[in-house]
Amino acid sequence: MKSLDGMKPLLMILPGLALAMFIIGYPIYDLGFTSLQEVSRFGKLLGFVGFDNFREVFSDPLFWASLNRTVIWTVTVVLSTLIISLPIALILNDDFYGRGLARVIIMLPWAVSLTMTAVVWRWALNGRAGLLNATLMNMGLIDEPIEWLAEAQLAFTVEILVGILVSIPFTTTIFLGGLSSLPRDSYEASMVDGATRWDQFRHITLPLMKPFINIAIVLNVIYVFNSLPIIWVMTEGGPANGTDILVTYLYKLAFRFGQLGEAAAISLIMFGFLLLFTIIYVALVMRGERQTDTIEEDE
Amino acid sequence: MAAVTIQNVEKTFGTLKVIHGVNIEVKEHEFVVLVGPSGCGKSTLLRMIAGLETISDGEIVIGEKVVNNVHPRDRDIAMVFQNYALYPHMSIFDNMGFSLKLRKRSKAEIEKKVNEAAGILNLVPFLQREPRQLSGGQRQRVAMGRALVRDAQVFLFDEPLSNLDAKLRVTMRTEIKALHQRLKTTSIYVTHDQIEAMTMADRIVVMNAGRVEQIGAPLELYDHPGNLFVAGFLGSPSMNFIEGHFSRSDGEAVVVTEAGTRLPAPDLADAKEGQAVVFGVRPEHLILGANGVEATVEVVEPTGANIEVFADIGGADICAVFFERHLFEPGEKIGLGWDTGKVHLFDKESGQRI
Amino acid sequence: MSAKLKKSLLYWLMLSPLVVVILFPFGVMFVTAFRPREELFVFPPRWWFSEFRWSNFVEMWEKTNFGQALFNSLYVSIAATALGLLLSIPAAYALSRYRFPGKSAYRTFLLMTQMMSPIVLVLGLFRLMVVLGMVNNLNSLVLTYAAFNMAFTIWMLQSYFSTIPRDLEEAAWIDGATHFKSLIKIFLPLAVPAIAVTSIFSFINGWNEFVLALTMIRSSDDYTLPVQIYSQVAGRYQVEWHHVMAATILATVPVAIVFSWLQKYLIRGMALGAVK
Predict the structure, then answer these.
(1) I need a labelling partner for A114 at 20 to 30 A (CA). Which of A24, A203, B106, C182 fits?
(2) Are C8 and A97 in contact (CB under 8 A)?
(3) Which domains does chain A have, with CATH numbers?
(4) Looking at the domain C60-275, which fold is it?
């Protein structure tokens, strides 16, 4: 009975674990294997070539351009999102008329899938009949319609702005969770001690929010770095690969150009990066758990 | 009704041993209280009796049957949980009748039993309510009612009163005791509250750090604690302990403290000259008198019924309880005496009673 | 003017740019979906339109094979949710109720797979489905969605399961219930809300997924909604935007309402409770 009791939980987690291991584990193995092979357009493995695929990737100027844009995309979107979300969370955490409505509106972009958001923006930004142009012309800000997505630099900027917009709800939610967990008595004590609102923000809110800011950074980096739909739907990395980031470039290599070896190599590089940030994330979560555990054990 | 025997029972979690070879005999109809500080293993032991924890070593016998590998449902026990564990999605009636329903008793019988138990516990008006609509004390009663309908061999109680406020706790204490006197079901009751243990138990088992320190009737333990732990744990305010050396001079036995104060002590045959001992006397056994040992009053706390005086006696702290209203001033010198027959001596090294 | 009113006006003023930008695409969606086709490309572009063309929706439904895509999306999302829950519920129960060897390693594994995005592995996943002969088969999506979602559902369920006191089940055992009976009579009734909320999120994830559906599904009869709508936009010279926006509204609005309603529960599935 005792040994059976020990087995029961393992039997309960096993089926799910097996599926996850298979569906997630096999592709990783396959990518590792494929990246060291010469591969035909149709996916046939033509033999071991060592690190040739990686060498090819590293000598590919489009890879470097995409990598460069990935860094810009990720850093700009994540940083801007954080900077915008913190004050929004502070406002939404305070009591004011219409707060419920404001919360619903701010969270709306999260409720719509990235693909649909991107489709709508693609139409809204249409150079001829897009309603963004209509709005700006009505307001007298521009005289002629602008072709927002026709030129790479401008298109990429617009995509970054949309990226920020869709990342705000999630980030704000994390911050709101953090703000609601701050101890009220610290604020009351600081008021008695004579702190201004700015003092409170600097010396109580910010330090106590640090774990939430950390987790928001890590999660956003993971999500944004991996995000394909916005750029893919709005410009497909074009014009002339001018808005490609690594995920879109990878997708094109794999499913448009049939460069499977190179695509596998890029996948692995990205996987490594993702793994790194995932480990940071896990470490943050575990640290948070250990802290709550010690509190709970105190009873 | 059945007796419960616990033989050399041990419990380990991984490499951590939390129960070290415990032996307890609970007789039929007896009300036994397991008491000890939190983390002493009393709840784990109770859960092992219930079958909610596996037994790492040793045996537990209920009635005639070794139950080590018997599922809780087949042990014929009833249990009252600390948080009551009422099923939130069932009415009070269904909560109390659940066990009978599982045993496929007839509707009429379930109704009769539940109503009977509800009658005893004053729960009749609440039978159709849900647990969240009841107060803490009422939930506590439902938890008891669930045990009552069962006619189980043994009742187990896991700190059942700890979530109630002080006043209700005293009432429920009396109710549980009255109930036991009426039903005479063998009961094992876990608490960390020594007053509950003293007032309710036929016999008390004092536990500490996974071991049994002493077993006995409440007053027996109070009057003859077997070691320092039991002496300090039972009684409030707790027994005064003063360290010193045993000595016989001029035919009188004394304990000489570090500061040289001589405390009159019983002349025990087993106490050796010069032995390092702990002198123990209960606060209520101290007598005010001019020819006592001199003490300096530090704090006086009147509780209404009595007065607790904290004083310094030869460099050691001592607490005395007086039932007369002596309102001393801090710094005042008083004489404290005692009947040496009521003094306890413990070996300092082993902590055991001499 | 009261202090709170003043504060409210200030806050709304500060939020207004963002509110406008957030509501803008919804406005675009609605005015496009309802306008007559001939008013799509007018110059200069304008918000105003002459009449509500409800028939746009009917036309779109017939011309774009919307019903089929809707059915495909429903099938994939429901099947993936069912499969995922079937595997997640026991695992979450084990996590919340038992100590077992490797438990912390398993939790780490869950956290890591939760962050694993299909896009990085998309080539490997495609090759896997080739090996399994499941390319162009909706079940390939069922399997992958279930697998990638499981970490989230297990985590979310176990965080709820842990709030159901263990002593309720213990009390049931002592009352005479078997393990199985205590699960059915005591645990599951109390876990229903948690399971419902988790299913809805799992469903929405499947409903919204784009990359895998784009990759695995080749024939337009098997498109799920996001791919179907995307296919009407991408690589076409003439895009019927009023149809696209009508389809977007139908595919988005119901799900968005449910999501907004349940959004506050989502955080539990993200292991953020631990940081809190």
Answers:
(1) A24
(2) yes
(3) 19-298 (1.10.3720.10)
(4) MetI-like fold (1.10.3720)
